[in-house]
Amino acid sequence: MSIMIAEVYEALLEAGASESKAKAAAESLAGYENRFAKIEPDLPVIKWMVGAVIAGIISLVIRAYVI
């Protein structure tokens, strides 16, 4: 049995979805949540890398117009 998000499962049941479809959808969403949880620790590194690239571009633009 896969991991599923209970809140989503219950909400789908209340909305009128069948039990099997609600279970499949809740399990599918839990899978995406796990994927994002694996990416989340890398976000600070990616932010620093983007900041360094932006700083480099700004320095090149300033150098092109000042010198």
Tell me the domain tally: 1
* Overall shape: rod-shaped
Class inferred from helices and paired strands: mainly alpha
User: Can you give the helix content as a percent range?
Assistant: over 70%
| Spans of at least 5 consecutive residues with low confidence | none
- Secondary-structure element string: HHH
**Total count of strands:** 0
Cα radius of gyration in angstroms: 22 Å
Multimeric organization: single chain
Distance between the termini: 65 Å
Our estimate of the beta-strand percent is under 5%
Q: Biggest β-sheet, characterized?
A: none
Number of helices: 3
Return the average pLDDT rounded to an integer: 87
Structural features, described:
With 67 residues, the protein is mostly helical. The protein has one domain (6-66). The protein has 3 helices and no strands. The protein has helices at residues 6-15, 19-39, 43-66. Helix 1 packs antiparallel against helix 2 (19-39). The longest helix has 24 residues, at 43-66. The protein starts with 5 loop residues before the first helix and ends with a helix. 4% of the residues are buried. The model has no long low-confidence stretch (mean pLDDT 87).
Could you list some keywords that capture this structure?
single chain; 67 residues; mainly alpha
Topology summary:
Elements: H1 6-15, H2 19-39, H3 43-66
Helix pairs in contact: 1-2
Short description:
With 67 residues, the protein is an all-alpha fold. 82% of the residues lie in helices and 0% in strands.
